[in-house]
# Entry
Amino acid sequence: MAEAYHVDSDVGFINELAGLGGEDLKKCFQCATCSVACPISPDTRPFPRKEMLAASWGLKDKIVGNPDIWLCHNCGDCSTLCPRGAKPGDALMAMRNYNIFEYATPKALAKAVADPKKLPLLLAIPAVIILVLGLVLKLFGVNWLNFAPHEAVWQADYINNYLVDIIMIPTFTGAIAVFALGLKRFVADMHANALADGKTDKQAIDPAGFGRALLRILPTIMKHEKFNECSENRDRSTAHLMVLYSFIGLFIVTGCFFLAEWVFHIEGPYTQVNPVKWIANISALSLIIGAALLLKNRLAKEDQVSGYWDWYLIGLVLALGATGLLTEMARLAGFVGLSAVIYFVHLMFVWSLFAYTPFSKLAHLVYRTTAMAYNEYIGRK
Ligand code: SF4
Ligand code: SF4
# Structure
């Protein structure tokens, strides 16, 4: 006689997935078309059918720390072919969103970032930090905040770079710490699940082997190779790549100017022909175009579920690029006051990017990379 299996269903989990974009997952009747249709699903224990079953039964422990859900690139091929309209691609996206939420600390901040009503409050936090710190320093004779300079040759004439750095560096460091805590639990859970499912027989994770697996999958990520294996939403690959490389470009630019200022004590302003400024301008332009393409793609796909998380990310990326470029354009056109205000708003978005990324959809980049490295490490193809 078959062994009895007690299903400990978490109804609240099903409802939360529904709120994150998986509202149709319970329509699934387990035909397995999705797993056959998916161009990147492995041959053994393929996804997303088994995840659709686990999610619709409310089996949270089968979804949290599940490395397979991160192999999906939400191309939508399976959703197009699903005979029940269960939208497995969107359901997997909801499961990934849930994982980000689950591994983020503190939970209260994660909840706030997922709540559109809290957006004004979240954006007000960096504004208050910049203003309060700038005004307090003024009391001590340090004039690092000046919204009405007589003339401006660069943005540091309104908000000094040192003021920006002493606000951004701890925020960035805090985000790294949140990611580190989340990833530690995430990797441990993935490994426990993989052992339980028989996907690996390695009892402990070897950090050096994991590092080598990470290096091996980086070209796949940098070229978005998995994305290009899909047919339904392949055009999204270009927009994704533009945003990814823009962020890498802006990260390099920030690093260069940080080193110039803090290590080599080469104070700005830097000339317009400086190659680092060229990288900054090209990256900002590419960020705006990439985000606009993502927006166009989402608006065109009426059958695809788009929630607040999707709009938040696209809006933030667009706002970052636009305010960065407009700060410079307004200053070059002689609108110094306007440029100062736009720069202030730009810094609010930059701070939000650092502080809220571990709780937002952008965290996919970190969790997906880790999960892909883990799958490579255990040899899951
Ligand atoms: S999600 Fe759709 S295609 Fe996949 S098993 Fe369920 S009903 Fe079939
Ligand atoms: S959305 Fe694309 S990658 Fe994800 S499971 Fe469906 S077919 Fe596979």
